[in-house]
Amino acid sequence: MGLRNDFLWGGAIAANQVEGAWNVDGKGPSVADVATYKPEVDVKDYSKQVGVTSDSINEALKTDDVKYYPKRRGIDFYHRYPEDMKLFGELGFKTLRISIAWTRIFPNGEEESPNQKGLDYYKAVFKEMHKNNIEPLVTLSHYEMPLNLAVKYNGWADRKIINLFRKFCDVCFKKFKDDVKYWLTFNEIDSVTRHPFTSAGIIPDKSDNLLQDEYQAFHNQFVASALVTKDCHEIIPNSMMGCMLTKLTDYPNSSDPRDVLASFNKNTMNYFPADVQVFGEYPKLVLDFFKKNGLTIKMEPEDLNILKENTVDFVSFSYYMSMVSSYDENNLTLTAGNTIVGGKNPYLKSTDWGWTVDPVGLRISLLQLYDRYQKPLFIVENGMGAKDSLTEDKKIHDNYRIEYFKEHFREMIKAVDSGVDLLGYTSWAPIDLVSASTSQMSKRYGFIYVDEDDLGQGTFNRYKKDSFYWYQHVIATNGAELD
């Protein structure tokens, strides 16, 4: 069968990891602008890498430093986007997933009127994308909420954020209705409990009950997602709105029924945010979890109807690795994953950052998601962080990356041949960028090398890796030729 003729091949980036220009043209500080690179901390210790306190935020706001606050500099996409878009066009991209930085449009999140320079910037970016025959896929919230809303309200724990976010989204829909058809609400919405500040602007030391605030933030984001889905459909006819899930595929460590149950529970909680956005209601097992943990979600009378009446059009997800679970963690060898720590599968190899490499897991994930939701799917993040070397003649020989994608694409196509309705695939990331979790540059994902090190030193010049030409051919043949 193979992939559909209009399959959307491309790549995915986020504003906070590429744009830089963190205080240019009226942009306000976001939660990403206080994220630090900590060279003294093990890159696999995510709890310390992404930890934030009120004191650390105050310290960050006292300085304009971009050396140890790498997301403030990114890869200078803000000024170099025409060059990068030309490279993406040369790759043959059908789509590019980007995000709109909320603080470029509303610097503090509460302004009466949007920042015109921010709107003009994204209008120019979309124009450049269409010039290169690239369809935009836009994430409205990708770890970039205004810092002011985190400090003032403790982020999404406060219901006030719903209308502020809706206002931001409506401005985007009206301004870019002729430019963008495909939209996503929240990046990896399930991640609120893994990194509440990054995902939801929750500052742990401002919470009396962190778990309560996290699940309240989930609910507020669900309502916001439903409302902006409604607005998008009304403002942009024929638009499509998707949700976005971190697919943390988990296997039992053994056939011991207790391990099977531990894995089931982990997968159930991973699915739950997408369940709400697809089915428009809370799963009964999750409601039981709330009860057992003493969680009371504050809702307005109309909330459940809003959720039910405004479900998403498709399900998008990130997939990087799989893990195993046991009823007793002493049975596991622990390893790092996508901002989590879990059981290492002894049958799988790992990347330099400890993430297991599981191509078959991608096929399993596609089959699980399609069987569960019966809606079109979109793989919007998949890739491997690796240490690349630039040779004297400015080449990057990254056959390891080619092999990674080759095996994942084979399994992806097998899932499609089994009947999965797959809209497209965007690699994370087509160009090297600042890592979300560790704020590093040396954790490289791209088909395009950026000459910048972890401390921001380098020319920022772009160079094509060997994988660039391989991916270019894969797209040209619509996945028919992987070798």
Automatic annotation (TrEMBL):
One GO biological process term: carbohydrate catabolic process
Keyword Hydrolase (UniProt): yes
GO MF assignments: beta-glucosidase activity
Pfam families, sorted: Glyco_hydro_1
Record's protein name: Glycosyl hydrolase family protein
GO CC terms, sorted: cytosol
Matches recorded under Gene3D superfamilies: Glycosidases
Active-site residues per Swiss-Prot or TrEMBL entry: 381 (nucleophile)
PANTHER family in alphabetical order: 6-PHOSPHO-BETA-GLUCOSIDASE ASCB-RELATED, GLYCOSYL HYDROLASE
Keyword Hydrolase: yes
Protein family: Belongs to the glycosyl hydrolase 1 family.
Keywords: Glycosidase, Hydrolase
